[in-house]
Design a protein that fits this description.
globular, alpha/beta, Rossmann fold, 6-stranded parallel beta sheet
Amino acid sequence: MKVALVHDYLNQYGGAERVLETFAEIFPDAPIYTLFYDKKNTFGRFEGRIKSTSFLNQPAVIKNHRPFIPIMPLAAAQINLGSEYDLVLSSSAGYAKGVRYNGHTFHIAYCHTPLRYAWEFDEYLDWHPILKLAASPAAWYLRLWDRYAGQKPKIILANSGYIAGKIKNYYGRQAEVIYPPVDLKLFYRDPKIKKGGYFLAAGRFLHYKKFDLAIQAFNRLNLPLLIAGDGPELENLKKIAKSPKIHFLPFAGESELRALYNGAEALIFPQIEDFGLVAAEAQACGTPVIAYGQGGAREIIEDGVTGILFHQQTADELTFAVKKFLLSSFDPNIIRESAKRFSKTKFKSKIFNIVKNLA
């Protein structure tokens, strides 16, 4: 089978990009199509695999893509794969499933989430009410387009049961759940690394990831908190960090992140995520997770066994959860075993079997 890989855009490296990287390992000859591409921000991991981009592949878009969201459906439709491929495998949180191809091509979409900015833009964009009102026609258009594009793939795979429920609600379709891959050879419990007495938060600094709640809680707790990552909220987060025990670290590579996971008392995870690869990676290192009990976290964390779940998304509740954690004990071996459900080997096997059955 001739296979093409399609991804929304490649100007950052996070959980969705790790999934694409695994697809590229499964299909080493498959080219990658994407709306725009930045070698530096993706650490050169896809260099030599990018076959085509869209008209949005411009420095201004790559640097700040959110203002261009309303025209991304048009950019996706501009990518026409014709009849060149037997299989299109898209990795999408929105736009990749909208590329064009001839009718005989079989399309499998791995859905990280239906398009956030269409269905839940109140939650994901911290805008002034007047700006939200002005943006509502664009959100209405994006909802229509996303529902239409969601009918194109022959098979839709969801990265969690939480997202499978959204696919059912928004697209009216059933989706098989295949959890994203955790590389257990990269993320493992290292007995040489002792606990460092700090708590850890990690990821892209975006409004919906609620790093501000972690900072507010640890301002009160006066406990060490390391925050690893980067993003547009960085300066705002630094302003609210009043405790001298809160420190910001730059984006960490896998070996640095593994060391941070291993040394942390617990990972702080206050957001609602589609899945939450960071939480699964921390558990692969035997580290418990203190998480808001909604979204993908409910499928990763067993309350009281592999972490602590709190049930109101407030700094007060997170503060209480950390205090509860300090009075609890967790077995790192049990936590590590739980994370094996998300192994890269299992992910590859499930994807390969689906494609093999098609062939």
